[in-house]
Amino acid sequence: MTDKGMFNDSVAVNIPLKSDDDTEANINNDPPAYQNPHLNFNNGWKDLGFAIVFAIHIIVVIVVGLVLGLPIVLQHMKQISLEKPFRLSADFDIKPFAYSLSGAAAVGGLLSFLTLFALQLCAGHFIKCSFFILIMMQILLGVALFFVFPPLCVIPGVFIFFTLIFISCVRKRITFAEAHLQAGCASLRSHPSLVLVAVLMLIVEFLWFIFWCLMFMGVIRALNIDLTTNKVNMTSNQTQPATIYGLSTKT
């Protein structure tokens, strides 16, 4: 009876369909997902609401800037040209300006590339040096304020105090930041096209700044016109005769 009961019990056995060798081969051949990421746009935008709001924001800024702000700038430029016409003297030469701008651009580009290599070699020293320069600038500011008005030395002293607290909190993470900076600089060196992308983004940021300024000027001008119109209407209403309970009065 015991043997019969043992044979009646069901036993589940899991038989692997792949051998251990196949698993090891897949691990060696196929890297994990985080090492070889793939972007999938088949499912559409995941942040569709944010994309719609951002697009509306861009359209509003550009339209308001062009409709309200651009006429103000054109009118102002026209007034300046009528009052003080721009004249170039016979001795004016544009070559020095062109040479100076070209030289500044060349020096700036060279320093940027040197900074890129320096950050990849010793980013941690750069971070420590920036902290040291910041503290020294605050100390020099405190010394200068001492000769101007001694109580003002408290302001840079407070900044130095909080700067030292910040440095004491992040000093153990300088190595971590150094590793990230080195990785970023290495990727930038391995993909030089990112430099062109950065330059294009600077142009986009500059245009965005221009449109924002135009929109700001246009909105301020429109609000000033509305406020002025309301004040004129209020003053005109006060000077008109008013009838109160059958009595004609003037205020």
UniProtKB/TrEMBL annotation:
- Membrane topology qualifier: Multi-pass membrane protein
Main localization, broad class: membrane
Q: Which keywords, in A-to-Z order, does the entry hold?
A: Membrane, Transmembrane, Transmembrane helix
Q: Which domain of life is it from?
A: Eukaryota
Q: Which Pfam families match?
A: Choline_transpo (PF04515)
Q: Which InterPro entries match?
A: Choline_transptr-like
The membrane spanning regions, by residue number, are 48-77, 97-119, 131-149, 155-174, 194-220
**GO-annotated molecular function:** transmembrane transporter activity
Location comes to: Cell membrane; Membrane
Return the GO cellular component terms, semicolon-separated.
Answer: plasma membrane
Family note:
Belongs to the CTL (choline transporter-like) family.
Q: Main role?
A: Choline transporter.
Which PANTHER family does this entry report, sorted A to Z?
CHOLINE TRANSPORTER-LIKE (SLC FAMILY 44), PROTEIN PNS1
Official protein name in the record: Choline transporter-like protein
From which organism does this entry originate? Rotaria magnacalcarata
